[in-house]
Amino acid sequence: MSAALHVAGLTKVYGNGKKALAGLELEVPTGSFFALLGPNGAGKSTLINILADTVREGGGEARLFGRDLFAERLWSKRQMGVVPQEVAFDPFFSARELLHTACGYHGLRPDRAWIDELLERLGLAEHADKNTRQLSGGMRRRLLVAQALVHRPPLVILDEPTAGVDVELRRRLWQFMREINTHGTTILLTTHYLEEAEELCDRVAIIDRGRAIAAAPMRELLGELGNTQIRLSYAQPPGSALLADPLLAPFNPRLGEGGQLMLDYARQTGGFDGAYQAARTLFGAPQSLEMVSERLEDVFVRLTEKCEGQG
Amino acid sequence: MNIPLLSNPRGLWTLFVREMHRFMKVKMQTLVAPVLTATLYLLIFRYAIGNRTVPGVGVDVVAFLIPGLVMMTMLQNAFANTSSSIITGKVMHVHIYLLMAPLTALEVVLAFLAAALVRALLVGLVLLLALIPFAGLSMPPHPWLILYYGVCGSLILAALGFVGGMWADKFDDMALINNFVILPLTLLSGVFFSSSQLPSLWQTINGYNPFFYLIDGFRYGFLGAGDTDPMQGIVATGLAALASALLCWRLWAMGWNMKE
User: Fold this and answer.
1) Residue numbers of the domain that contains B179
2) Which listed residue, A108, A126, A175, A280, has the most CB atoms within 10 A of its CB?
3) Cβ of B97 under 8 Å from any chain A Cβ?
């Protein structure tokens, strides 16, 4: 099966000279719930805007379900539903009118049952006939999601869809997105809520300075690049001089609160034995041992900091 | 890249309806206000000038003013419809929905120009009905000239508004075009006077004002008299309407000043 989205060598330099994409490579498998992460200015929104045709591409290739996105723009636009980062609406229309218009733009008769379902599932049913100016920030953002889904696109692109949405409604939104994904819709999500990405997405790519610096299934990324930390407690906290011992050097030794000895090892190297033995050799058997796995956020911070260091 | 000219008739219709809906939602501003303004112009000039015959044309001043006011109002409204829609969209960042829609450039341009034309014709018709009591009701000698110049003039101004909206980045830019280009050209185009009343230098300058021919041709349709022979301007007016629509199409297809 072709990838939902395949991007190769995509570049973009803005008129002010800012290089937003520097040969981006990315593959979003069909049916995946894909997290596209990166610090501010990494190029996430530029990529989305290029795909949505609101920003011109510099160079490179993009294929949507195997077809050339740039050569088949009209077809591609029908396959995508894009939730832009900025919340903006035509001030003349109600929520329902906007959804009818969005259907029409895609060449479809308004599917009233689907529109009602979208409004209901996104908590907008009561506000359907209100002018968009009367909606709160969170409602507007959910209306953007409804607008992107109204033509039932096989690829949904969500650029920071939950900023400003309260916890309960956010949960309902994600539940709905999961259902849609289960029924075969590919979802590409950018978010700064990394715990959301970790919980929802089965694949992840991290981009920085217009390039992908990591891309893998979520579990693999956390497994391969995520460190595990062991925290060892002793009756007598280890002296800081011993932390410089070459035996501990590979494990980034440091003291935590209460004098806990903290050591990191990479999960992929299976380095637990090495770390534990080194500590035991120097300090004896610990009173207690705790293992803490790195979350996506830790991996993200480490990878992007490393990238910054290289830049 | 092979992009068809028309691929989404429902999309085109939706955009047209949306544009119509947009100006109908604020009809006090888009329909009633222009009619009131033009009626006030007529009253003021009627009582300021008195019952006179316009030199060079040989018709009563009220009969002379009415077609000019109607055409001027139509032109200004056609321009306002497209320009305000596009610049408002850009400033409020809602233009992206239009860029993201699977519509060809031709479909976008046709929908915008058609909606602007409908607004112009609607405003023109309402204004005409409002002004009939001042001049009486009689069958114009060349109704097809009225229709031709009315439609072509509105299309030209709608297209200029479309391009102006694309060019402008803020409302101030739009006000610049409106106040320093459109307003002087329409006011100085012979709405309130016959060209023959002007000094020869101004007559020459007026000869370069394209709006002068639009208004004169339109007026000729009502009165059977004007400053120029309306048949001379027919081909140029039609070509100008076509060329301005093609310009809109080309610029939209390029994404000129709409996409970074």
Assistant:
1) 9-254
2) A108
3) yes
Nearest CB to A107 within list B10, B21, B97: B10
Chain A residues whose CB is inside 8 A of the B22 CB are 90, 92
Q: What is the pTM of this model?
A: 0.87
Q: Are strands A19-28 and A5-13 parallel, antiparallel or unpaired?
A: antiparallel
Q: How far is CA B160 from the centre of its chain?
A: 9
**How many domains does one find in chain B?**
1
pLDDT tens for chain A, 311 residues long, are 789 999 999 999 998 999 999 999 999 999 999 999 998 889 999 999 999 999 999 999 999 999 999 999 999 999 999 999 888 888 889 999 999 999 999 999 999 999 999 999 999 999 999 999 999 888 899 999 999 999 999 999 999 888 777 888 888 889 999 999 999 999 999 988 888 888 899 999 999 999 999 888 888 777 766 677 888 898 888 877 778 888 888 888 888 877 888 888 876 555 788 888 888 888 888 988 887 877 777 777 777 877 666 65
B96 in reach of chain A (CB within 8 A): yes
Is B186 domain-assigned? Answer: yes
Cβ-Cβ pairs closer than 8 A, A with B, add up to 87
Within-domain flag for B210 = yes
The verdict on residue B259 lying in a domain is no
Note whether residue B1 is domain-resident. no
Q: Chain B within 8 Å of A67 (Cβ-Cβ)?
A: no
Partners of A36 in the beta sheet? A205
Q: How big is the CA angle at B60 (ends B58 and B66), to the nearest 5 degrees? A: 115
Task: Report the amino acid identity of residue A7.
Answer: V
CA-wise closest residue to A137 among A83, A88, A196:
A88
